[in-house]
Amino acid sequence: MVVAERKPIKEILAMMAEYKKILLVGCKGCVTVCCAGGTKEVGILASALRIAKKKEGKEFEVIERTLERQCDPEYIEQVASIVENDGIEAILSMACSVGPQYLAKRFNVPVYPALNTTFIGGALEHGVWAEFCQACGNCVIHHFGGICPVSRCSKSLFNGPCGGSAGGKCEINPEVDCAWHLIYERMKALGKLDDMAKVFPIKDWSTSRDGGPRKVVREDMKL
Amino acid sequence: MDADRKQPEEPKVLAFCCMYCAYAAADMAGSMRLTYPPNVEIILVPCTGRVEIHHILEALENGADGVCVAGCEEGSCHFSVGNLKAKKRVAYVKTLLEELGIDPDRVEMFHISASQGPLFAKVASEMTENIRRLGILKWNKQRG
Ligand code: SF4
Ligand code: SF4
Description:
The complex is a heterodimer of chains A (about 220) and B (about 140). Chain A has helices at about 10-15, 30-35, 40-55, 75, 80-85, 100-105, 150, 180-190, and strands spanning about 1-5, 20-25, 60-65, 90-95, 110-115, 115-125, 130-135, 170, 175. Chain A is an alpha/beta fold. Chain A has two domains: about 1-120, Response regulator (Rossmann fold, 3-Layer(aba) Sandwich), CATH 3.40.50; about 135-210, no CATH class. Chain A is elongated and about 65 Å long. Chain B has a single domain (about 15-135), classed as 3-Layer(aba) Sandwich (Rossmann fold), CATH 3.40.50. Chain B has a four-stranded parallel β-sheet with strand order 2-1-3-4, sandwiched between helices. The relative contact order of chain B is 0.25.
């Protein structure tokens, strides 16, 4: 999933400084799962913002909605009548950064992101998420025991560890596992240590961000 | 700061009390005829694990000057970990309040077993005293 976290309240309050009535929109997709921007978090942020404004003695109204997704235009459309008829001065989105961009594309009202979109990852345990993929556009994890060297090695190394790998940990931080240590252990368990001697050729990064903004087209899915 | 009020107003403290421990303790305090301030209003919850972050915030937003969440003692929650979840949520609300420039002491977690009527009365009195010291929240004044 896309993992995100809420911006500090102060930063959000600064964004909302001049407004009296806003629409706060959550998303039922990834950000609900990583507890950053679902219905619950919308309720919490709305309440926190109202408290902050009350403290300043300013009037402030928050209309709260949580959409199925914010990365599909048909769901964005569901708030159209509110934005266009209810005197909404600004929209605050709690989706990953795709959401606010879709909202900004659709409505002629300033749109603000309430979250920082951090990475593509998964849950390690309740309340802890970690990065597992950098969307390089050409997945190679099967060569590395199912462990992604791009996202999980701090230096994105493809041919063994750097000199900083110690005791299974990465030199950048003793709390970070060395991806290459994990790859070694995994290849050993799979009886494929010999494969590690093979040199992995230079990766073609044209499928990654180096090729500019990317697009996926499925002709068979088009209407 | 209270100069504009017609008569001295009293702070309100909302107490979310779990059915199995804190609420039973409050009941016991009553039957033991122990007094505690009438400022404390109790909401009975099946377990403090049911109390969400936004319940606490909305209480402060809508009339409460302080909120306490009172559950079973650690290790004896009827639903095994509800009180530990509540404790973490209270801690989270405290960080939010700090971010908002509101004294985090307005929200507290307590662990009170069903047999501790006197402890309930003591906690209720101390919490009220703390909130009285912190004052009524600006937007809660003259709430009528
Ligand atoms: S190799 Fe590329 S696509 Fe595969 S997990 Fe790593 S970053 Fe993601
Ligand atoms: S210590 Fe391991 S994870 Fe860290 S940069 Fe070196 S090889 Fe990569």
